[in-house]
Amino acid sequence: MRDVNTDALRGHMDALLLSVLESEPLHGYAIIEALQERSGGTLTVPTGTVYPALRRLEQAGYLASEWATVGGRKRRTYRLTSAGRTALAGERSAWQRFTSAIGSVLEPRPTK
Amino acid sequence: MRDVNTDALRGHMDALLLSVLESEPLHGYAIIEALQERSGGTLTVPTGTVYPALRRLEQAGYLASEWATVGGRKRRTYRLTSAGRTALAGERSAWQRFTSAIGSVLEPRPTK
DNA sequence: TTCTACATGTAGGCTGTCTATAGATAGAGT
DNA sequence: ACTCTATCTATAGACAGCCTACATGTAGAA
User: Fold this and answer.
1) pLDDT single digits (tens) B44-71
2) Chain B positions in Cβ-Cβ contact with residue A19 (cut-off 8 Å)
3) What CATH code is carried by the domain that includes residue A69?
């Protein structure tokens, strides 16, 4: 049973991150847990993937961050910007087109 | 309207190629056309992607190829091996798990 | 004190997809 | 004859993003 991760995620990371941040602001560590939970334990995204990706999305203007201290620990909390919400909508429709296209190719056909 | 290609395909190319070769052997050029047709014109895979990928899959033992001359033109025709059929089955279930995982994360939720 | 959970972050590697380019034949149109 | 399009294979190098591994530190439980 091959892992879902490793490669296949490429190009979909942005959508995932924007999506978990849609309902509420979260910090990196919490985002990783949220992805794990929401995917039913299937998605285990390493920190070396998430933190750089978050910075990239902030750079792009889709996220904004601020530091907070909770229980003696420092967190950088990310929230969606309005541009981020627009981007998320685009990612969702892109995902629809993507799965539809791949799915129709992968559909089994009668052997000639 | 962003293109479906570019990045998102990464990690799914193998599944696509194995799938179009399931029903009948095809040569590279025909494979590209088949992908285009089956996806309803959405998937335009460049030759620089397909040919190396086919070689990689042959190297892996999932495909076998042989030269044929049709109308003065040389074609290298690829067909699925039995290992390739097994791999295709694996790719299909991986695709199911993949879309299920991403889909459940992307699903919109009520804002807190 | 040790272990686990919490929390952020970077450097470098890997690898597969894309762009761009090359070469060649066949057939239609001008 | 010439050009253009379609058919057909192929490679080199660029690019980008995900991963592994590592570094650093606090808090709380055993």
Assistant:
1) 999 999 999 999 999 999 999 999 998 8
2) 105-106
3) 1.10.10.10
